[in-house]
Structure formats: structure tokens, C-alpha cells
Amino acid sequence: MGKKNKDKHCSHDAEACYPQGAPPAFAMASPYLIQSPQMRWAFIRKVYVIVAMQLVLTVAVASTVNLVDPIRAFFQSRTKGALVAYVLILISPIIVMIPMIFCRKKHPINLILLALFTVCISLTVGVACLSRNGTVIMEAVGITLVVVVGLTGYTFWAAKKGYDFEFLGPFLVAACLVLILFSFVRILFPMGKTGTMVYGCVAALVFSGFIIYDTDNLIKRYTYDEYVSAAIELYLDIINLFIAILNMLEGCD
User: Fold this and answer.
1) Where are the beta strands (DSSP E) in the chain?
2) Where are the domains of the chain?
3) Which residues contact 136 (CB under 8 A, 6 or more apart)?
4) What is the C-alpha separation between 193 and 2, in angstroms, rounded?
5) Entry's InterPro entries (predicted)?
6) Tens of pLDDT along 58-106?
7) Surface-to-core class of residue 168, CB atoms within 10 Å of its CB (0-12 exposed, 13-18 middle, 19+ buried)
8) Strand, coil or helix: what is 234?
9) For residue 31, is it left (φ>0), alpha (ψ between -120 and 50) or beta?
10) In angstroms, rounded to a whole number, what is the distance separating the alpha carbons of residues 41 and 47?
């Protein structure tokens, strides 16, 4: 009887269900963890498994583009065929993203589109690495790994302490718009290595913020059927951070 009363009380008061000593703000900010912690952690693990598989696929595709001589020679040939391939690779993620937005909760179509989207992004990464030094690429991979692990660990710690990063959303969107504008300026008015380094530094800060923001959303806000959306957000954050660090190191080289 006492157990039933306790369960009834917990259903109306999420804070009372959480272990004694836990910050009330955490209970308010993370209702999914309070209501069903096992399901929430299973959801989080599922998302990170998907992201890990995406990254493995990206490494495989990008390595193929850079290490298989005929493919590398084709992209470096600067022929009309290579130019068409470049354009198709650049626009393909956008083309795949459109149906994925509408089918993101429809299994298994969402996973098929996710795999196709990952291949498109992987080709973009592979092409972006064609003109880069191998040592610089490996340094960028190492730095990206350290930053992602560090920021992810920090966000989980901050969530446990009751901190919330939802306020970052508008600032990050504004920062993205500035980066896009800066990219167009760089195309029209090349700024050399200094401009590349500055752009890389700013972009790295912005996408580091996105990693914190999207990890916070993963912990607290995504519903259980939004695993594809959560995986895409984190995957793109990591890829964009890698490209930003690559630009930063290239500017310093």
C-alpha cells in the first residue's frame, strides 16, 4: 500500500522521484530522465551508435576518395566531368535532406535516407580533403575527437548539475548566418591563409557550441522516435567542427 502511494506521488512530482541530493533544476529540465531513465539512456545509446556508424562510413568513403588513385585523379583532373561531379556532390545532401525531413519518423525509410545522406556528406568530406596535407588531416581528426569527447562529457555533467543550454539556440543560428556570409565574402575576395585561419577558428567555436546545444537536446528534449533527427544534428556538428579545424590548421601551416 505504501509503495502504491509512493508511486502515485512520484507521478505527480518528478522531483520527488529523483534520488535525494539531486538538483531540482535537473528534474525540471530533464523530464524524460525522471519519468523513465532506462528508456532515456537506451535512446541516448541508440543515437550515439547511429552517429558512430555514420562516422565510420564517412571515414571509409573519404579514405576511398583520397587513397584510390583513379578516383583521386578524376577529381583532380578539372575536366567537365569532374566539375559536374563536384556540383552533384555539393547539392546531393540538400536533395536527400528534403525527403528525410518528412520521413524522419517513418521506419525503415528514415534509416535508408539517413544512410544515403551520410554517403553524400562523406563524399563532400572526401573532396574537401583532396587538397589537404595528410598530416594536417590526421591532426584535425585527433583534435576533433578530443573536443567532441570533452564537450560531450561536459554537457552530461552540466545536465546532471541542472544547467540548461537551450538559450544558445538563437545565438548559434545567428552565428551560422554570419559564417555563411563570411564564406561568400571569402569566395569573392580571397583572404589567403590568414582569412582561412580566422574563419576556421570562428567556425570551430560555433560548432563547438552546437555540440553542447544538441547534446543538451538529446538528453532532455528529443522524443524517443526522433533518433534520426538527433543523430543527424550531432553528426553534422562533428563533421562541421572537423572541417573548421581543418581550415584553421591549414591557415596555420
Assistant:
1) none
2) 1-35, 36-252
3) 246, 249, 250, 253
4) 70
5) Bax_inhibitor_1-related
6) 999 999 999 888 888 888 888 888 889 889 998 999 999 999 888 888 8
7) middle
8) helix
9) alpha
10) 10
Using alpha carbons only, how large is the chain's radius of gyration in Å?
21
What is d(CA 71, CA 91) in angstroms, rounded to the nearest whole number?
Answer: 19
Please give the C-alpha separations between residue 71 and each of 56, 174, 207, in angstroms, as whole numbers: 20, 38, 30
- The string of pLDDT tens digits covering residues 120-162 is 999 999 998 988 888 899 999 999 999 999 999 999 999 888 8
Owner of C-alpha cell 541542472: 162
Residue 108: count of CB within 10 angstroms of its CB: 9
**Cell numbers given for 27:** 528534474
CA distance 130 to 76: 8
Identity at 4, one-letter amino acid code: K
Of 230, 146, 242, 234, whose CA–CA distance to 203 is shortest?
242
Look at residue 218 in the predicted model and tell me its pLDDT.
93
Q: Rounded to an integer, what distance in angstroms lies between the CA atom of residue 195 and that of residue 248?
A: 9
Residue 12 reports pLDDT greater than 70? no
Nearest to 55 by CA among 224, 253, 236, 247: 236
Identity of the amino acid at 22: A
* pLDDT for position 56: 96
Residue 2 clears pLDDT 80, i.e. is over it: no
Report the pLDDT averaged over residues 197-212.
93
Residues 6+ apart with CB under 8 A from 30: 40, 159, 219, 220
What is the length of the chain? 253
- C-alpha 249/C-alpha 235 separation (Å) is 21
